[in-house]
Amino acid sequence: MATLSEPAAGTHLTPPSRRGPIRLTRDGFGEITGRWRLVRYLVAADLKRTHADTALGQAWWLLDPILQMLVYYFLFAVIFQRKTEDFLLFLFAAILPWKWFSTTVNAAMNSVVGRQGLIRQVQFPKIVLPTAATVAETFSFAIGLIALAILFIPYHERLSIWVLTIPLIAAVQLVFSLAVAIVLAAANAFYRDVANVMGHLLRLLFYVSPALYALWEVPNEDLQKLMMLNPFTILLTAYRTVTWGTETVDHGTRPDFLALGILLAVSMILVVLAVALFKRVEPAFARIL
Amino acid sequence: MSEQPAARPIAVDVRGLGIHYDLRLTRRTTIKGSLVGLLRRNRNAPTHFWALRHLDLKMYHGEAIGLIGPNGAGKSTLLLALAGILEPSEGTIAIDGRVSTLLTLGAGFDQELTGRDNITLAGAFLAIEHDEMDRLTPSIIEFADIGAFIDAPVKTYSMGMKARLGFSIATAITPDILLLDEVLGTGDQVFRTRSQARVRELINRARVVVLVTHDLSYVTEFCGRAILMEKGQIIHDGDPAETVDLYRRRVRESKLLAEVDAERFAKPPAPKPAAQ
Known about the structure:
The structure holds two protein chains of two kinds. Chain A is mainly alpha-helical. Helix content of chain A is 69%, strand content 1%. Chain B is α/β, with parallel strands linked by helices. Among the domains of chain B are: 1-29 and 48-97 and 212-254, 3-Layer(aba) Sandwich (Rossmann fold), CATH 3.40.50.300; 107-172, no CATH class. In chain B, 40% of the residues lie in helices and 22% in strands.
């Protein structure tokens, strides 16, 4: 009878004892680092899949951002007769990182829902899914930077040492994107409407961010201050400042490090909250998908 | 085959297990649906559904257990809980050893990737070490026996090919606790014979095998113990032949009851609604 009362060693599955947010966050980060090989494979799978069926294949990594830039260039430089100097560079410096964010959001929203078959089959930490989606989109952004480098051939007089701070700005954006990605991946699993709503919200966010225009062109100064609350005002302005310049400087110059620092701190808090939230609702995925 | 199970070490110990689904989340998957639900909420409508409740179950080393019962009895939910995919809503599950994954064959494949890539990805999802996976991959490919298709995207596969690859991956590692959900009837006759041989082999090597199936002949053939479930409860637990007999009797009885009910409701002016 001794064997009967002996507790079995190994896995113990207990009801979700209301784990605190700190514990949830620690678990979540532990899963991301502990299952990094899975994240890597998922990223590789994502990269392989994208453009896999197209004739031009990998060339689309470069063609996509360039064509998008040309569309806006045609609209503003040709139709609206906009007179901004070196307008192609002005546009591309902001559109490239914006595209990174919007594709990350879309990929993240599909990351959990798209693996529902697997979620009901295998026990694995679901947080790797939005993480891998975010990392995969970072690769396509990095490839887009090659297009930016090419653009500096005609605009070489604007090139400065500050262009080397792009990875720093990108790091801030990555942290912010990861927080958004994790939250939306979970939200879309519960309500598919999230993807529809986000399509419109992203478009709105794009137009209220200084991508097609610059912050100093906004006529109302109060409105300018209000716009600084938008993370993408800070980010896109920073990218543009280090590549194209500012209203007064016609080459790459020092970005607003204070604003970037504040955004980084806020984004880190957001990631912690996002991971805690994700871990909190994760057990429900297998039931609702 | 297990005359005195108490003498063997326990491999799975389930105590007071309950699993419920939140119907508010599973029924409606849109915000609109939830808002509409809030407006005209029927206070008496059940919000929770207990797929399993107050379930106590011990499994011992060396057992092959057949799990039978009608649809919706909670068999698959129990397997999902044992696999760790569903968290218990109440009660505990203690498991000694590595539990296999569940296989609803091929449902988890990435359609755009090749079979080979899917094998690698599956290994990472199952947390199998890279070296072990490298070692297993040739035998997985060999057993799946889908030829040159292994390097084609999975979306080009037939249902049978997906099932074969899925079965081959899921049974490549020998788990301590093997969970099988309706897998013995897949593929063509040749593959069916081979897969049954493989399941037999796994049953011999694994500590515990739990087999969910509607084909009752498998239960008497493969299992040394059978559990009959109905409405989230264990109705009977014991000898396979006995349990299968009981299940067959109950199915006949409920069919008879349904016929009686159908007759009663067929006549519209029933004097009284049937009180339960």
